[in-house]
TrEMBL record:
RNA polymerase that catalyzes the synthesis of short RNA molecules used as primers for DNA polymerase during DNA replication. Monomer. Interacts with DnaB. It catalyses: ssDNA + n NTP = ssDNA/pppN(pN)n-1 hybrid + (n-1) diphosphate. This is DNA primase. It comes from Terrihabitans soli.
Length: 630
């Protein structure tokens, strides 16, 4: 429904932003504005501000900004029309009426919703009465409390073929309304309409506004033709666009950041009872595009939960195929697989809420599930079979409509194909942290301390995001300052990603220019005067034992050899990264074999360069180490 700007402005004029926001956020006056803790992020200091004069809120911690309509949409997951209707009611305004035909349809729907609510009350009364004794015992066995049953309005449909029909007809509800809502079964070959749901525990299905629009019924008899039975498609109910528990879960999902999709009503209810309120379920079939859109409105990366058996795997794979065309930047799915033979209901009963949250925390990204599905589809032991895998992957990725996401998927898949790339015969083994061996491989006195900093320093280095090779180059220059004079022209051309290291380089070059490059002591004093001792400590903390040549105790000859070879690798890596960005862009424009192969080749070269150093004949002898490669 379209709303005129004048009507929206009237709502804004009647409802100050602070009034609407203040119902959810505790606000305090701060000058001309109001301030409070962000409703979007957990924080201790207020970063959320409301300005009534300008009619907006702004959250500095999350970057979210908007008016009163946007606030309801962001915090409660409602649609724009719902936000307008709700705020119009609070403002004492009547929403403008639509065309006569639309008004008639809306009125008819309201009547049918009333009928569904009357049916729900009938089922609730039946569950509480004598006829519902066995159903209550079943729910007791499943561990559902009275409060949970009331919250979800669970009920029972007795076995009588005409019980609900007679009840509603007695309240002057026309039989046509029962037919239209699907509460009775009718047809040309059926003489008299009769109740659709009989001898079943009843689960009301509600729309995004909490109105009952359909029912799901679980059979009490083990030999029933259908264990679960849903309402048919009706003017109220379109199964592919509805999620069970949507109206309750969306606020919790917005608070948690995402929704969780499980497979059954009982799973949703059990999770809610355990305190996991952001769970929803499809309605007995594979998730549709419409249902995924609802999930994405609740959060950018919903977690889809499946049983760990083969049926669960197949359901997950169907969800992958449904989602692929609709992926967008920042919008995807994650997949959680439960232990074999267990569903969420079983898991929370056996191991509690923490066990389920642990499963959710380990959810895997869509790209990994897609890759493993195709990898497991058949052997890949020959070039032809690997080529078939590549073709399948490319065809699937082409289904992604968003160009940016498609390009990144091709890049990710090219990286995964590196598992098939042959390793060079003399490929260096990536560094693995291990203790020094006894005997001849032990570094000489003073060297071990220089290259094995404390755990605290290593943590500081990690926090600064210093790349190890860049750190080694700068530490070598400062601990062996004569390198600066010999390689002055090269130093300014070294590309550094860390601001810390760039400042160290500038200070070192400046110190050498003022005659302080003759010794480690003079250089260290210059670095201290520049206020960069902590930066130097972080750089040294980033070094690994394989980079011993940068340490103070290494011989200048070994330091220069290591420096030059690491510099060559550093420059090669930067050049390859530029080529990689160009290759990714080319692949995004044209998903050709040539572009894919080019990207894979560059990634392979980068993999070789990034984790290793060159082999240098006789390297280390001058520092009292046996001649070996590094």
């Amino acid at each position: 429904m379209a709303f005129t700007p004048e009507f929206l402005d009237e709502i804004r004029a009647r409802l100050p932003v602070s009034e609407v926001v203040g119902r959810r956020v505790q606000l305090k006056k701060k000058g001309r504005e109001w301030a409070g803790l962000s409703p979007f992020n957990k924080e201790k200091s207020p970063s959320f501000f409301v300005n009534d004069a300008k009619g907006f809120y702004h959250c500095f911690s999350s970057g979210k900004h908007g008016d009163i309509f946007r606030f309801l949409m962001e915090t409660e997951g409602v649609s724009f029309p719902e936000a307008v209707e709700r705020l119009a009611g609070q403002a004492g305004l009547e929403v403008p009426k639509s065309a006569p035909q639309e008004q008639e349809r809306a009125e008819r729907k309201r009547t049918l919703v009333d009928v569904m609510d009357m049916a729900a009350k009938y089922f609730e009364a039946a569950l509480a009465g004598r006829a519902g004794q066995a159903a209550r015992a079943y729910l007791d066995k499943r561990g559902l409390t009275e409060a949970t049953r009331t919250e979800f309005r669970l009920g029972f449909a007795p076995g009588d073929r005409n019980g609900l029909k007679a009840h509603l007809l007695a309240q002057n509800i026309p039989i046509e309304a029962l037919m239209e809502t699907g509460l009775v079964i009718h047809g040309e070959d059926i003489g008299e309409p009769f109740d659709r749901f009989r001898d079943r525990i009843m689960f009301p299905i509600q729309d995004a506004r909490g109105r009952i629009i359909a029912f799901g019924g679980r059979a009490m008899q083990a030999d029933a033709q259908a264990k679960y039975l849903n309402s048919p498609e009706t003017p109220l109910f379109h199964k592919g666009h509805v999620l069970f528990n949507h109206h309750r879960a969306r606020t919790a999902a917005h608070q948690a950041g995402n929704a969780i999709s499980v497979e059954g009503y009982m799973d949703v209810i059990a999770l809610a009872q355990a305190g996991i309120g952001n769970a929803v379920a499809g309605l007995g079939t594979a998730l549709t595009e419409g249902q995924m859109e609802l999930l994405w409105r609740m959060g950018p990366e919903p977690v889809l939960c499946f049983d760990g058996d083969k049926a669960g795997q197949r359901a997950a794979h169907r969800a992958v195929d449904t989602a692929l065309p609709h992926l967008k930047p920042g919008r995807s799915l994650r997949f959680a697989f439960l232990p074999d033979g267990q569903d969420p209901d079983d898991l929370v009963k056996a191991a509690g809420r923490d066990a389920m949250e642990n499963v959710i925390a380990q959810a895997r990204p869509l790209v990994d599930v897609l890759w493993e599905r195709e990898l497991d589809a058949g052997p890949t032991d020959t070039p032809e079979r690997r080529a078939a895998l590549e073709r399948r992957i490319k065809d699937l990725v082409k289904l992604i409509q968003d160009e940016t996401v498609r390009r990144h998927y091709m890049t990710a898949m090219a990286e995964k194909f590196q598992m098939f790339a042959p390793q060079p015969v003399n490929a260096p083994v990536p560094f693995q942290r291990r203790p020094w061996n006894n005997g001849e491989r032990r570094p000489k006195a003073g060297l071990r301390e220089a290259i094995r900093p404390s755990a605290g320093l290593r943590q500081a280095a990690g926090a600064g995001r210093i790349k190890v090779r860049e750190a080694a180059l700068l530490v070598a220059l400062i601990r062996h300052p004569r390198l600066i004079e010999r390689h002055a022209e090269t130093l300014s051309e070294i590309e550094l990603t860390s601001p810390d290291l760039a400042r160290l380089r500038g200070a070192a070059i400046d110190a050498a220019a003022h005659g302080e490059g003759d010794s480690q002591e003079l250089m260290e004093a210059a670095i201290a005067r520049a206020g960069l001792s902590a930066s130097l400590a972080r750089a040294e903390a980033a070094l690994t034992p394989g980079l011993w040549w940068a340490a103070p105790a290494a011989d200048d000859l070994d330091a220069e050899t290591g420096f030059l070879h690491s510099l060559a690798l550093h420059q090669k890596a930067h050049a390859l990264n530029k080529e990689l960005r160009a290759a990714e862009a080319a692949l995004g424009q044209d998903l050709s074999e040539e572009n894919f192969s080019r990207l894979a080749d560059i990634q392979h070269q980068l993999r070789t360069v990034e984790g290793t150093e060159s082999t240098i004949e006789g390297f280390g002898a001058a520092s009292g180490r046996p001649a070996r490669s590094f």
